[in-house]
Amino acid sequence: MSDEDVPQLEPMPEDWSTALAVVAHPDDMEYGASGAVARWTDQGKEVAYLLITAGEAGIDAMDPDEARAVRAVEQREACAAVGVTDLAILDHADGMLVPGLDLRRDIARAIRRVRPELVITLNHRATFPGGGLNMADHAVVGQATIDAVRDAANRWVFRELAEAEGLARWDGVRWVAVSGSPEATHAVDVEATIDRAVASLEAHRAYLDGLGDGPMSDAGGFLRRMAESTAPRFGGRPATTFELLPM
């Protein structure tokens, strides 16, 4: 198939001012999506991050209590690299996330607090592009985020958020953008922000070192190859992809 025959990706909408990213772990946003975040914060948009776990089970050689603290520091550095100042890290158990009302309530709470027009999450589908299997935490949080957008908009769901916490319903989410989806529909040009995307990923030094030898030994090369591989589907421009779900 020639480049002309490759199905093209649409540009992500940018007529919005506030976004909330909801992912399972420290580093989830940094595998591509942070390059888009850097572009958007450069435009003056506000992007907040909600991490469902502290990633405490993600470094085999490090005790979870130590890893929890280290990974929070690394995530704050990663956020700073792309202009994110609003970071919340919850205490759900890393590696053991399951669908449930507590998770949906916590995400709906954040949506009502931030009041975003765009919600970003990581792949909720069974595989990643290329066929690699997804992991349970990603899939659970991705689906819970989609559900929580609806919950946040319904005044009769999680009524305690309004009654006890003063968080009125929010029905202003226009899209959910799913990073890393095998069914990508849209993309964001990251040519001008790829260096900051690399810096955001490389901020997770303890985590990357814990992975040992492999594709992430060269995190910068990994991200740049991903962006370049999208270029034939996006007018020749290096990009990061999203599956865009209108709400």
TrEMBL record:
Organism: Iamia majanohamensis
Protein name (database record): PIG-L family deacetylase
Alphabetized Gene3D superfamilies for the sequence: LmbE-like
Record-linked Pfam families: PIG-L
One GO BP annotation of this record: glycoside metabolic process
Any GO MF annotation of the entry: hydrolase activity, acting on carbon-nitrogen (but not peptide) bonds, in linear amides
